[in-house]
Amino acid sequence: MSNETKVLIGIGIATLVIVVAATFLIGGKSNSNAQGNTEPVANAEALMRSNSHKIEVKGAKITFVEFGDIQCPACGAAFPVVQQLLGDYKGKLTFAFRQFPLQMHQNAQPAANAAEAAGVQGKFFEMVDKMYENQAEWSESKTPMDIFTKYAQQLKLDVKKFKDDATKKKYQKNIDADIKDGFAVGVNATPTFYINGVKQEGGIDYQTYKAQFDKILNSK
């Protein structure tokens, strides 16, 4: 056997090992969820504060919390699934969105501040929705506030107040409080979800989350 043949065989084996390992890792991530984690976080009070941005249903049996970075591609990919769950279980759960902008994303903090500024005018979720729906438009922009201002106009906000609040980071303390709570409950990536205080492992999957919601709703 020539040296060239040996090298080619070696490369082929190495490639096969990488492919198998990648398949295992990807499969493991997609299949792992709260099935192996049923204990609520110890400091559950940090999951949702009285002033957290939430869609609240009094007496709801399900509390669904997301710690998200609005620029995060994974959060953007999870957004349609979250929206579908919120639509399908409307009136049956309380949903809270906690800010967790990552330093690696240059526009994550401006986006978080813009969302807070919109929230003061009663349009937090509407602004976040627009940001996720148009994430590709602003995520790498050098002037993201120009784009966020356009969204503010579409939402019929007081644009002058919105720009002033966002650019001066008037509500940065709210974002910092969310980040602090995120670390307290074990957030180490975005998005991270909690169902009734239980941290969900792996990516969000509609059918898996639906099964958990249904189990909670059908329990006594």
Offer a concise description of the structure.
The protein has 220 residues and is of the alpha+beta class. The chain is built from nine helices and five strands. The protein has two domains: 1-31; 40-218, Glutaredoxin.
Could you explain how this protein is built, in words?
This protein has 220 residues and is an alpha+beta fold. The protein has 9 helices and 5 strands, in the order αββαβααααααββα. Strands 1-3-2-4-5 form a 5-stranded mixed sheet. The chain is globular, with a radius of gyration of 21 Å.
Sum up the overall morphology in one term: globular
The whole-number mean of residue pLDDT values reads 87
Major β-sheet profile: 5 strands, mixed
Distance between the termini: 70 Å
* CATH class category of the largest domain: Alpha Beta
Element pattern in H and E: HEEHEHHHHHHEEH
CATH fold-level topology of the largest domain: Glutaredoxin
Query: Radius of gyration in whole Å, from Cα?
Result: 21 Å
Strand content: 5-15%
Helix and strand content put the structural class at alpha+beta
Q: How many domains would you count in the coordinates?
A: 2
Known CATH architecture of the largest domain: 3-Layer(aba) Sandwich
Q: For the record, what is the CATH homologous superfamily label of the largest domain? A: Glutaredoxin
The helix content, as a percent range, equals 40-55%
**Low-confidence spans:** 2-35
Secondary structure tally, helices: 9
